[in-house]
Amino acid sequence: MRGLIAVTLIGVVPGLVHAQGVMDFDPSQWEYGPRFDIEGEVPIWNPVMQKIRNGEPVIGGTVRATDARTYCATADAGYDFTWIEMQHEAISWEQVARMWATCPGGAVPGVRIPHEGEENVQKPTDMGALVVIIPTVDSLEEARRAVDWTYFPPMGRRSNGGGQAFGAGMWGQVPGSYRATWNENVVLILMIETLEGVQNAAEIAGVPGVDGLFAASGDLGNFSGYSEGDPEYEMLVDAVADAALQAGKIACGPLRWMGVRPAFTCFQGGTEAANIRRGADAEIQAAHERFEGGGNTAGELATALAELNAACGTVVYEADCLSAVAQVLSAGQGAGSQADRDRLRDRLARIASDNPGLSARIEEALDAAGISPR
After folding, report:
1. Are residues 243 and 116 in the same domain?
2. What percentage of the chain's residues is helix, strand, coil (to nearest 5)?
3. DSSP string covering 276-300
4. By residue range, what is the domain housing residue 195?
5. pLDDT, the chain, mean
6. What is the reported pLDDT for 195?
7. Taking the CB of the first residue and of the last residue of the chain, which one, N or C, has fewer CB atoms within 10 A?
8. 132 and 180, same domain (yes or no)
């Protein structure tokens, strides 16, 4: 079993008995019993863990809503796991439990919790989470606590208190039983977001039970004062990825890094709101093309416009929006009609107006592409 170190029982000293009749013993020397032993290889029934073991990429879709219909749409959209946003959203655990119970199939239930405390890990795992993401891990001690509350004994200290995860509607009928196979199937990802976290990344990655490190693209900029592409920022990202790979763990990051940064094989995809904007924009763009008799905006430009609407409709990460701007301008070079160029210019001008901090860089990109703002 992963991360497990066998210990030899040292017998209790005869005659050492408390007044209440309880023998005195050393818990650190206890030889764990065979109750949850499994003959042969422990079955892997978590598809995300299986993909990780196979060296395949995994993608999580971010959910910030609270209604089951939106969650189910995301879970059925093709993601490997769902990333319920409990760090930055006012979502209750009851709402999370309801969403997972409504759609236990499709994407594997996953969650980003506020921190590594027992309550924050115990509740989602009892409700069915198979992927646990913990933000802002700065130290070896925090990593060890994360492992403690994520794993059942003897590897960790997770309480066997029941919950909907144990039921037939979720994981109650998995091969080998949920309790006996949990420690081999849960996926634990720790986010490195601060300078202290980067400094201790190698130690954090080396903790048995940690499956991956996530290089937090937004907060590495927040805590360092540099932007993606700056040498200082890139040094931090490389340090996180190197620490993960050297420890034999996966490196995780935003989905736009897939195929661009080869070290990364685990990704956070867009929010359900971004996906709605992306889908609606593609549908509307296709309708415009039919109405205008085709035109030259089909294909690459339509896809780029949809991505622009998703990344810049509500800017969470500036780098995502600017990457989408560059993509759409590149695709727009082949747009032959003036109507296409006007639509593209107006879209970018509106984004610049809504996001003053990005306006100068968007206008520079427009000028460079030969599309002058009105």
Report:
1. yes
2. 45, 10, 40
3. HHHHHHHHHHHHHHHHTTSTT-TTH
4. 47-257
5. 87
6. 98
7. C
8. yes
Token digits of residue 111: 């969650």
Encoded amino acid at 290, one letter = R
Q: Residue 122 pLDDT more than 90?
A: yes
Tell me 342's DSSP state. H
Question: What's the number of domains the chain is made of?
Answer: 2
Can you tell me the distance from the alpha carbon of 17 to that of 256, in angstroms, rounded to the nearest whole number?
Answer: 63
Provide the H-helix boundaries in the chain.
47-54, 68-75, 93-102, 118-127, 140-150, 178-185, 195-199, 201-205, 217-224, 231-246, 272-291, 300-313, 318-332, 338-354, 356-368
Cα 93-46-111 angle, rounded to 5 deg: 25
d(CA 132, CA 342): 45
Whole-number percent of the chain with pLDDT over 90: 60
Q: Please tell me the predicted confidence (pLDDT) of residue 25.
A: 82
User: 191 pairs with which residues across the strands?
Assistant: 214
User: Do residues 195 and 291 both lie within one domain?
Assistant: no
Residue 354 has pLDDT above 70, yes or no: yes
pLDDT score of 134: 97
Instruction: Provide the pLDDT for residue 372.
Output: 64
- Quick one: pLDDT band at residue 197, thresholds 50, 70, 90? very high
The 10 Å Cβ neighbour count of residue 234 is 14
Let me know if residue 11 belongs to a domain: no
Same domain, 245 and 317: no
